[in-house]
Design a protein that fits this description.
single chain; 5 strands; globular
Length: 378
């Protein structure tokens, strides 16, 4: 009998190669997944934050290098997300935690005198967040926390940055207000809404809900039953397509000035209403996106305020003093608040400044970014 043992010993098993990610979004998602795994064995709670950061720092520095390299790749396609549900919420909280740790890393770098490094950390982290959060409304809404975390490092230390770092932040502000980003967000959100609405068609055709407590659903089912059985799917899909087209028209017109947008729920409902109206179909197709115009308007305003702080600081470095009025430091177009429909507010006391927007009643009123050392003057 011939022994196969020598043959088996001689066989070299080649480990499977991990295929490198081919898009930026794939790299971002990979970094998020690895960060989530890195968090699991670490202690939790406020008292352990510095311990956690110390253990995570090598991972953060390595991940920054990966994110920089990823910029050479095409963006790619993000995951399909839901408009109405919080399906992605746990992953979004991991992303927020990652951005919080990047912010802490940038503060450490700045404290060690490495301003260029710190500026790069803030820029790369914020650009990553911007591209990760255009896949749908839920992600975009949580992105406001990323912006607050990362821009606060800049604003809280505004007098410690050199001019090259400040100029890089102006480039970042431009990306934060890029209309293409908002357009991608809108398109992705409408596509998600269309998928969800079309997914309900079989249930409506099945004549379910006739005994529902909700009068709108009962009326909807009654109308569906009145249609010829063979044409119900086609009619419903046509009705949904009509409403999606109306939705696209409404969002197509979301260009500054933001104060003209349908920011209230009532204004949004009027804008997307279809006549003849089947109220349940309107809700099924358009509900869940009412908050998107105001979220975009607030996001753009926060980014502009961030840019104004940076521009004022550049003026201070160039002239050795603060501007008397905002337009001394910025072009008139940058100084005009298109959400409040009048110029941004500006004040200075001694060596401290404050810039804010009066906002809009439907977007929560006053919007401001206050440096930490101005929050508690006493």
């Amino acid at each position: 009998m011939i022994s196969l043992l020598p043959l088996l010993i001689s066989i070299q098993v080649t480990p499977a190669r991990v295929q490198p990610a081919k898009t930026r979004l794939a790299v971002y998602e990979s970094v998020l997944a690895e960060f989530n795994q890195a968090l699991k064995p670490l202690p939790t709670g406020p008292a352990n934050q510095m311990v956690r950061f110390g253990k995570l720092r090598p991972f953060l520095e390595k991940s920054l290098g990966r994110l920089v390299e990823a910029q050479k790749l095409p963006l790619g396609t993000g995951p399909k997300t839901s408009v109405d549900s919080a399906f992605d919420f746990p992953n979004d909280m991991v992303r927020v935690d990652l951005m919080r740790n990047f912010a802490r890393l940038a503060e450490d770098q700045l404290g060690a005198g490495h301003r260029a490094q710190a500026a790069k950390t803030i820029t790369i982290a914020q650009e990553t967040s911007l591209e990760l959060t255009t896949s749908g409304q839920i992600r975009f809404l949580t992105a406001a926390r990323d912006v607050a975390i990362l821009t606060s490092v800049v604003i809280n230390n505004i007098e410690r940055w050199d001019k090259p770092s400040l100029v890089s932040f102006l480039a970042l502000r431009k990306k934060m207000t890029d209309p293409k980003r908002f357009r991608a967000l809108i398109d992705n959100s409408i596509r998600s809404k269309s998928r969800e609405a079309l997914g309900l068609v079989p249930e409506l055709i099945a004549d379910t809900g006739g005994q529902a407590d909700d009068e709108q659903i009962r009326e909807m089912v009654k109308w569906v039953r009145s249609l010829p059985a063979g044409s119900r799917r086609k009619v419903l899909e046509s009705e949904i397509a009509t409403r999606i087209k109306k939705l696209e028209q409404v969002f197509q017109n979301l260009r500054p000035p933001e104060y003209t947008w349908p920011l209230s729920d009532a204004a949004y409902a009027r804008a997307v209403r279809v006549v003849p109206m089947h109220e349940f179909l309107d809700l099924m197709t358009t509900q869940g996106l009412a908050g998107l115009p105001k979220a975009i308007a607030k996001s753009a305003t926060v980014a502009r305020l961030f840019g104004l702080y940076v521009q004022v600081q550049i003026y201070r470095l160039d002239h050795g003093k603060l501007p008397s009025v905002l337009t001394d430091a910025v072009p008139a177009a940058d100084a005009f608040d298109t959400l409040a429909n009048h110029p941004f507010r500006y004040s200075s006391t001694g060596n401290k400044i404050n810039v804010w927007s009066d906002g809009h009643p439907e977007v929560g009123g006053k919007i401001e970014l206050k440096p930490r050392n101005q929050q508690h003057p006493n």
